[in-house]
Amino acid sequence: MGKFTLDPSLQMKMHQYQIVGRAAPTPKNPTPKIYRMRMFAKNKVLAKSRFWYFMKKLNKAKKSGGELLAVNELFDRGPTKVKNYGVWLRYESRTDTHNMYKEFRDISINGAISQLYQEMAGRHRAQAGSIQIIHATAIPASACRRDHVTEMHDSGLKYPVITKLPLVAKKLRTTYKASRPMTFVR
Amino acid sequence: MSMFTRFVEPGRLAVITYGPCAGKVCTVVDIVDQKRVVVDGPSSVTGVARHMMPVKRLSLTDFKAAIPRGAREKTLKLALEKESILKKWSETSWGKKLQAKETRAKMTDFDRFKLMVAKKKRSALVKKALKKK
Question: Where are its TM segments located (chain B) (predicted)?
């Protein structure tokens, strides 16, 4: 048995980075305040850019007059355990800025954040640039509030597969089929 | 009488129909949501490591191991062995078909040649037996 390779289509596109930085020390202020942020982004470059976006708002520091002390990717513990994630966010709609709390079930925080961006785009037409994640963390089952999450908490949970469309390997897919697919399942 | 006999539930044996693990069997270990579950071979038994998978890519079988939700690999392995589920599975016609498909796909050119020769021999014998009567 060789190394197990996960299907790339199942992998999450978001990554979590820890970025530490500050405004560059000057004779006037030799020890500027250091900030550490957990950023969610598709790659390191975007994460750093987002970090400076927030730094500009927090204090007088931007990329040209600042320095990064550390950029690390953070990885989840227990990537095969299903967890509940609570995400507090702020987003700008067409009319106003709103605060929101959302819950997701996933195996990693990156997956939950990916779901979040999908949902914000789908339900509220909010793109990544207008979403600010305030806080995101795994929460215990007792702290979950949303129905779509709590209904998955039953220890004897089971459900049938009602219909099934055959998934055909991409190179074997055709526009016209000789016979109708069998969608019935027991 | 309920309409369904196979459920997406912890312990349900399933066949993966799509992706890199296509054709392998696995066990549902935990449920993420209505579309996704966590499956485990276990990897030491069927070569499927524990990972999340859409239900769409699974075909459920009649077999179910008695495991709690989110069971560890060790528990799962014991539960599968206790009821000899994988043995029962390999005796079903569905399991046999998958096995045959795998062996056929793994055949080398020489194996295929040997198969051809064996088939020829068999048909010759059949023809001979039929001619006698």
Answer: none
